[in-house]
């Protein structure tokens, strides 16, 4: 008779890169998928290499099927890119933890990894849901230390200036739990309606982040995605408009 | 004062058979009960012997009462059958894990057992719910490696050819978590309405599986079960039809 | 910095009695509270002594306030009574575990205790909900072994004779998990409407149990409780009847 | 490959004060926020110093944003104040545990800390929800020992004198679990509607507590808060009244 205990998360190292003063950038699924879009853009543009996968019983018990019929287990992933201005680790993935306990556990697992690699600064990326369309999204900020707030303000990041707002999920926890380990960090939230996947908002977040990281990357592919989303939403709006016009025309005929 | 901790699962070995290159076949309750029907058919036809039981706090806290008044605790079970073409282990049971955590834990427990017995290949069986009746169910596939996809295609298994589908529960997790241990595997999903227990779909799954395993077994009892289900559903349909006709007859009289 | 882990249950021994071939009798809250009523009656009539308390994080996070203003934490309790025909341990309490995991954990904790005291036979007591009033409740049974079924049948216990029924909660788990430890046991379920606390049903369960245990105890206090419940339900029925009559009288006047 | 386990709570000591016969006072969020208001008032008036923080995966996975743009992880906190009449430890925080398991675990963590500092007496503060407005809230009590009940009665605390009430959450558990460690304690619950944050009720609780602790503190700031809440609720009532009057005036015109 054997007793089996639940393992909450499994970390698989594909390689263990040696990095110089790396910063950690987090972009997981969330409001408008802003954080994930930004992180994926960064991975593409920096040609970042995957070095680690995180599997967890707090993700859905599910595999995805690829176009070629093969499968992949849902997971989070960490990538790295070496840069003269300082190496970069990027965290992204399919899901955030589903439960409160899992959120904490996964954040601690990520921080254990980050700490072991020498990370002292964390940027978490996300969306700031407005519930209505926003043409020129601003980037809302929060940070672990007042001097980071000041630096971000210089780069156009907006701080609300009032107590009580909250950041829920990995973007909040990585900073909050990181502080307990003496880490520093900032959360960059692009304004977004929250109704659609929002590359337009992700681009604004990337603009601030690249200034902070002192790197330059092309925004062309995010621009393209933003244009495509705009084309689709414009088409939907025009269909809605013509339906309303048609309907009021019908109504007129009906009344007349 | 004593402190008690939860044990998540208990594995009870009835015997420890020595097997040659065994494959693991999983068929637990799910859509149309296709996987469980197929696994049970395999156990019956191969005269497979039970060697192991898994009890878990992630199953309902429940016992079943047998016809003779005795009870049995809800569980999963593993059987084995020795074949010249390669030994076979079959996993079936009363329930899948109820929570996401339990699903992962139970899949890991099964993989621990399978690994210790030398399993390198896993077949997971299930239903593919269509939400409507299907006369000639196809078998939809997914696999851990492209070459398995190719072999399955030769046996008539259909691959969707588009990204994004998901396999939820034990049939997905055993493959996904198995890959992390270097195992290979395939999921065979028989198309089914999802509304009834579907031996017709289970038969198609078994046909593919036996070709892959290079074994021959009778399908007669699945044919019988399929006929019985057809008889029952036909009777229900005919009752429904006559009720509709009677009702429209009444309506006519009422109108006239 | 300290890390704290959850403890799932705490067992507090008030004393450690030495018992001869004790049987375990369980009666926790459930359908019609039949099991708990029966267990409490047994404790009173046998003048059983409390020797152990079980506290658990799977009970509600709650204390009760006594009439004198003092408090008591919710718990389960175990009592013992020494009898020539064999010693008896009785388990009762305020709650059953709230989650499936907790149900399993608490059942294992109770079995650990029972095993350490030499228990080989378990009686679990409960209600069998019918959803309608029952004047002469029968006792429905289930057991771990066919020979126990036969003995119970001699004492008038009814067995359904068909597969598929289930016993949910402690009354099922203690037997099911006990079997894995080589223990024997029976579940005695008194028929009850399930709508009210039912001493009438508890009495029938006690009658069978005392025959099995070869003990004699007075049923007077259960008779009294049953009479009181009958008085209350009769009064409610008579009020309902007069309200219906009054209403139909009003209706007649209204129509007339 | 690394396995990660969940840590349920993390206790961070800012300092380890040496205290003489300290009592523990708990005031966490709850009905009318009475307990938290009272605890915060005590901290302010006693100029108590924070010495410890508790973080837990049973709190929401969230950080708060301060007015200056910095963040703080949700937590519980413990403060101490040295007094000739006996030192005082005060527990307050952003949240109580969200699950039953977490409630138990956090209460045990607090008791571990309290025990290690020599605490033998605990006061838990909370609101007693009436569901209707109460002008002169009484303080309802419960205690671990009859002699504490008597002392509290002398200070005007009301005891219900009937069995069956329950105290849910930290205010109940700290006393119930504390008793298992030989600690003594009392729960002081200020009557409150439960609909608003209620400094008026908190003041009555503080009055009793300070008598029990033989300390004197100003109630001025609680009086101010109570006045402010009264001003706001009076304004709301007057708006409601004028709306009702306006509406009935409109109705009259409409009918006339």
What does this entry look like structurally?
- Four copies of one chain form a homotetramer.
- Chain A is of the alpha/beta class.
- Chain A folds into two domains: 9-218, PAC-like subunit (Rossmann fold); 222-256.
- In chain A, 39% of the residues lie in helices and 25% in strands.
- An eight-stranded mixed β-sheet of chain A has the order 2-4-7-8-3-9-12-10, sandwiched between helices. A two-stranded antiparallel ribbon of chain A has the order 5-6.
- In chain A, helix 1 crosses helix 5, helix 2 (100-116) crosses helix 4 and helix 5 (199-213) packs antiparallel against helix 6 (220-255).
- The first copy, chain A, is globular, with a radius of gyration of 21 Å.
- In chain A, 45% of the residues are buried.
Structure described in brief:
Chain A is α/β, with parallel strands linked by helices and 256 residues long.
How would the blueprint of this fold be written?
Four copies of one chain form a homotetramer.
Chain A: E1 2-4, E2 9-13, E3 23-26, H1 34-45, E4 49-56, E5 62-65, E6 71-73, E7 76-81, E8 88-93, H2 100-116, E9 121-129, E10 139-143, H3 146-154, E11 166-168, H4 170-179, E12 184-192, H5 199-213, H6 220-255
Parallel strand pairs in A: 3-8, 3-9, 9-12
Antiparallel strand pairs in A: 2-4, 4-7, 5-6, 7-8, 10-12
Helix pairs in contact in A: 1-5, 2-4, 5-6
């Amino acid at each position: 008779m054997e007793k089996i205990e639940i393992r909450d998360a499994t970390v698989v190292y594909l390689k263990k890169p040696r990095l110089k003063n790396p910063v950690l950038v987090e972009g997981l699924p969330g409001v408008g998928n802003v954080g994930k879009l930004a992180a994926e853009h960064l991975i593409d543009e920096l040609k970042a290499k995957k070095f680690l996968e995180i599997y967890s019983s707090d993700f859905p018990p599910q595999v995805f099927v690829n176009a070629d019929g093969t499968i992949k287990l849902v997971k989070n992933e960490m990538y790295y890119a070496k840069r003269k201005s300082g190496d970069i680790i990027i965290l992204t993935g399919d899901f955030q933890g589903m439960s409160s306990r899992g959120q904490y556990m996964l954040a601690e697992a990520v921080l254990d990894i980050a700490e072991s690699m020498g990370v002292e600064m964390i940027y978490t990326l996300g969306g700031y849901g407005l519930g209505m369309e926003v043409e020129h999204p601003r980037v809302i900020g929060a940070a672990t230390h007042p001097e980071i707030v000041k630096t971000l303000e210089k780069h156009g990041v907006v701080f609300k200036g009032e107590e009580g707002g909250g950041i829920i999920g990995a973007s909040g926890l990585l900073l909050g739990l990181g502080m307990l380990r003496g880490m520093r960090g900032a959360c960059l939230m692009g304004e977004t309606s929250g109704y659609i996947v929002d590359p337009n908002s992700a681009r604004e977040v990337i603009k601030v982040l690249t200034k902070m990281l002192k790197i330059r990357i092309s925004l062309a592919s995010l621009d393209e995605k933003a244009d495509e989303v705009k084309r689709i939403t414009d088409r939907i709006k025009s269909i809605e408009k013509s339906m309303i016009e048609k309907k009021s025309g019908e109504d007129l005929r009906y009344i007349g």
